[in-house]
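User: Continuing from earlier, I have the next pair ready.

Assistant: Great, send them over.

User: Here they are, in order.

Assistant: Folding the first of the pair now:
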Amino acid sequence: MGAGSSTEAEREPLLVPSYVETNTNPVNSRVYGRRWLVLTLFSLLALMQGMVWNFWGPIQNSAAHAYGFTKSDIAILVLWGPAGFLPWLLFMWLMDKKGLRASLLLSTLFMVLGAALRSIPLTGQPLRRWLIHGGQLLNGLAGPTMMSAGPYLSTTWFAPDQRATATAVASLFSYLGGAASFIVGPLIVPAPNDTQALTTISAAVSDIFIRDRIQLVMYAELAAIAVLFGAVLLYFPARPPMPPSVAAASQRLSYRSSICRLLSNLRFLMIALAYAVPTGVIAGWSGVLDMVLTPAKVSQVDAGWIGFWSTVGGCVFGVAMARFADSIRGMLKLILVLMLAGASLASTWFTLTCLSSYTHLPSTSAILYTSCILVGIFINSSVPIFFELFIETVYPVPEGITCGVVTFLGNLVTGLLLFFLTFYCKVLDISCLFSMLF
């Protein structure tokens, strides 16, 4: 017993240490520095798409004098943005099969064509009006990619601890473009002076000057979009050579299976409804904010500043909340509940302020501005948090398909709202309360 020496086979361990098998990583992952360039190009394109979409709303009084646009024309020009989401399945399919580059190139091409079409300086007003509407529709066709591809880009290029922040930046720059149009339009395009009696000659000169300034802004936006299109054409890879994480390299569901999975997931549909109602309402409401606030004796410039600060505040607060979500996981639902609760209180405050003749509550400019800005901050900042919650809920459905579905629903709500502008106060208040139930 033990007198003889052991053989080589007897000295082999019965259990092989785990490090022998895991010493070689089955999935090579790497984070590339060029991800920031990709994020910057995409964000700037989303910025320009948002600026073109929200160009006419902040200057609706000037557009009425320069081109004879009515309030219905302004509402239809804003409506072309949601209408551009009708072929969203095509863009989601292209993104899923060919990557982000193919979908982004097609969307940017639509943006260039739309910006060029509406910038053609024709003197005939009927034909010019049709060209402007056509240009807005082409710009709206870029919406499915610009508004829903942010989570797909962040998962494809960024590490898990940076994903929520990248999603926030890519998703909110479209909103930031809408905010920029609130400032660029009213500051460059002068508002018509209807308070003084003008002669026919001076009125004609004033309208020509307004038209020239509008043309100047459209030329500048066309040039910026053309430069960005050239940059994307020269360099915008579909995906990095190696994925940034194991999750990015994992096998995802097919396009058809993803759609079926989303439509049969009750929890996803409830969260999607909670996202679509308030964000769709605030998007349509912001697009015609100048028209909405005109009965409250708010000037075109002041309405622009209200829209600017409500959107910019939402973007800044949204990025901050995304950074917080990156550091502390598992709190997305709580963050959303707090945001929607704040939006409900602010929208109720704004509604009561607008109905001061019935409620006999104080109604001042400071109260009106503050309540309106708070509504935009709370709702707009919830967008990236919603996107992260969607991705975690329906994994392994591809991020582009998931966010494409929910942004389509949000734009569907926006389109419906534009047909019921007279009920904007009540709709906004009810939508926030309704979303908190989920």
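And the other member of the pair:
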Amino acid sequence: MGELETEEQKTRAEVASSLRDLAEQLDGDGGVTLDLGGTTVQFRPTDPVTFKLEGESDWSQGDTEAKQSIELELVWWRAAASAEEGALDVRE
């Protein structure tokens, strides 16, 4: 098991560019490479892929702003007889 995550502020155009790049990689037959804050993670998605899309708004009494978010998650299963076979392919 493993999890890597990065968070940074970008412009809407930069986010759109990143999503287009991800979409192009998913559309091909090869792997998907993500750059997570200087660490590269490579995936080999298999069909089918479960696609979860969520919209959320959070506001509390007294707040002057509401936090809104869009979250997306892609999930697929791959054969693995050990934790090592199921581990992420991470490169620094």
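Worth noting for the second one:
Strands lie at 32-36, 39-43, 50-58, 67-75, 89-91. The longest strand covers residues 50-58.
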